[in-house]
Amino acid sequence: MLIFFFPSLQSFSLVLIVLAVRASGFMWTCLCSQDLREIVFVIQSQSNSFHVRQAERRRADLLEQAQSLTEKPPVVLLLHNLSDNEGDWSILPLLPYLSQSFGKNSSWIVFLEEETNVKMTKLVQVLGKFDQNKEWFLGKPLHDEESTIIHHYAFAENPSVFKYPDFSAAWALSIPLVVRLANKVRDEPLKSDFTIDLKHEVALYIWENGKGQHLTAVPELCTEPDDSPQAQHCATTLRSLPPLCGEPVSADDVFVAVKTCKKFHSERVPVVKKTWEKDALFLEYYSDHADPSIPTINLGVPNTERGHCGKTFAILKRFLSDDVPKTNWLLIVDDDTLISLPRLQVLLSCYDPFEPVCLGERYGYGLSQGGYSYITGGGGMVFSREAVVRLLKSGCKCYSNDAPDDMVLGMCLNALGLPVTHSPLFHQARPEDYARDFLAHQVPVSFHKHWNIDPIAVFNKWLKDDLRTTTAGGLNKSTKTEL
């Protein structure tokens, strides 16, 4: 038995306060320990070396935070390491594995991107507000302002009614929901051939035509910059600027190939010349007609109404020939692609040109049935010289000149075991086709299509940088503020 003597009531009160604080601290440690053991973090990582390093840093940060709270850390998985299945990045085919591995001893699967900062104690508190024995789909909601082609014009009458998660803010599934969805995936083959906008398609699958779970908005899942005053209440945040990997790649190390055809020489090519052409040191226009006034080069491949595989493979061969300057990087774009080359040069500083890098906006075809990923062409396709060398050495070729070039390249890369590297800064569609809150935390590299817009105005608003005011990170501060 311990006997305390208190010379005054004030001292007695002070001891009670100290004991209460210690007790509450003990209770918090126990609670946090229990909750962390029941959370599985899945970092949506990629196999490119730069992204592996980013994901490993994120995992190390999560585990370091957890170590200060509990002796038993949570499970932190890197998505690209889980299996050899190319479709793992599309999440849904992965659900049976997550259910089988963690369905009995866990409560939550939390997905986050490589750049998502997590405040561990805050996140545990947030998840604690929800009954883990029920089905929950949690995230920061996005919605379309108008029906869009990238979502197959879903909810055309009222696009804003459907909410889907911003992956950058992290998103979570309760284990009961994971288990039920996993059983559904096992029993019913995934139907969609194409994976275009993963976050929207995952939400649609979970929603199940109104019979499943709607996304529950969680205000603490944020995309605020981590140094913003508005981030005080947030459990997740983002870096205030994209990663700084060194000096931007020099303009003389990027060769730009613009695909065009005679009927667009007077309509689309002038837009390129008035917007981003001036930032390219090495650029050629490839057409079905040689026009010296532009000038364009006829590669001997007739124009086709559908895909442009023949033209693209001719460009790849020309890139490795002595007919063009030798550079480490090849950018292939359409004549209606709007792109910021200075921003691309900053982005490329993060990648090793001596690796087979294939970079752009990633789509998928037949991922649940052993399909493949590919870079969608309209947003721009970037290849390191090493990637082009391996592609052409493999003997891969078009099955017809009008085959879809981006998809054929995807099949070739898949056969070679070369990864497609995704960047959300490339966009296959117009700014109007993306959720406003999604673009708000980006400094985009490209957009595509001139349909129903003023392309020069779009370029000036979204992609134009004044290099004289460029920051050390290579991005215009005023542009970042506007976005």
TrEMBL record:
<keyword id="KW-0328">Glycosyltransferase</keyword>
<keyword id="KW-0472">Membrane</keyword>
<dbReference type="Pfam" id="PF02434">
    <property type="entry name" value="Fringe"/>
</dbReference>
<keyword id="KW-0808">Transferase</keyword>
<protein>
    <submittedName>
        <fullName>Beta 3-glucosyltransferase a</fullName>
    </submittedName>
</protein>
<feature type="domain" description="Fringe-like glycosyltransferase">
    <location>
        <begin position="248"/>
        <end position="453"/>
    </location>
</feature>
<dbReference type="GO" id="GO:0012505">
    <property type="term" value="C:endomembrane system"/>
</dbReference>
<keyword id="KW-1133">Transmembrane helix</keyword>
<keyword id="KW-0812">Transmembrane</keyword>
<dbReference type="InterPro" id="IPR003378">
    <property type="entry name" value="Fringe-like_glycosylTrfase"/>
</dbReference>
<comment type="similarity">
    <text>Belongs to the glycosyltransferase 31 family.</text>
</comment>
<dbReference type="GO" id="GO:0016020">
    <property type="term" value="C:membrane"/>
</dbReference>
<feature type="domain" description="Fringe-like glycosyltransferase">
    <location>
        <begin position="104"/>
        <end position="187"/>
    </location>
</feature>
<keyword id="KW-0735">Signal-anchor</keyword>
<dbReference type="GO" id="GO:0016757">
    <property type="term" value="F:glycosyltransferase activity"/>
</dbReference>
